Amino acid sequence: MVNPGSSSQPPPVTSGSLSWKRCAGCGGKIADRFLLYAMDSYWHSRCLKCSCCQAQLGEIGTSCYTKSGMILCRNDYIRLFGNSGACSACGQSIPASELVMRAQGNVYHLKCFTCSTCRNRLVPGDRFHYINGSLFCEHDRPTALINGHLNSLQSNPLLPDQKIVTLSEVDH
């Protein structure tokens, strides 16, 4: 088990010394044939679990992710923090305990999930437009330049890369 943020290697385990390793999860002695090493500690394979989904990390892959004291599988890390763990608007890190908003695979701080024109915050239940990586409230939806002519979205309701999403809940 490897923590992508850590470059440390496990110290050698010698069976002749009978110095049992203690599990960082349960505190018990590890007498199992296999043990895991993650976050500079040894673990029973049954004890190293994702903080969100409780999946045993040794069974689902060879890496785990840590952030804000949580141990996460890859899927939950991406679900909570996006691919980079940073807000798509401001680029700052998003703490594990913070609620987030999502649009088209991007993750945002609540305060950063705003209309690109009027800067008003978009909240669950608001309709918004996501165009070329920018968010727009229903009122400020932009006009589109199509084939060199300026047409309003009233006559051309959706651009090929435009999605209309109604927010229903905040992910955490």
UniProtKB/TrEMBL annotation:
Pfam families in the cross-refs: LIM
GO molecular function: metal ion binding; transcription coregulator activity
Protein name, as recorded: LIM domain only 4
Keyword Zinc carried by entry: yes
Source organism (scientific name): Anolis carolinensis (Green anole)
Gene3D superfamilies associated with the record: Cysteine Rich Protein
InterPro entries the UniProt entry points to: LMO_RBTN_TF, Znf_LIM
PROSITE patterns given in the database record: LIM_DOMAIN_1 (PS00478), LIM_DOMAIN_2 (PS50023)
Keywords assigned: LIM domain, Metal-binding, Repeat, Transcription, Transcription regulation, Zinc
CDD domains (UniProt xref): LIM1_LMO4, LIM2_LMO4
UniProt GO BP: positive regulation of transcription by RNA polymerase II; regulation of developmental process; tissue development
LIM zinc-binding domain segment(s): 21-83, 85-147
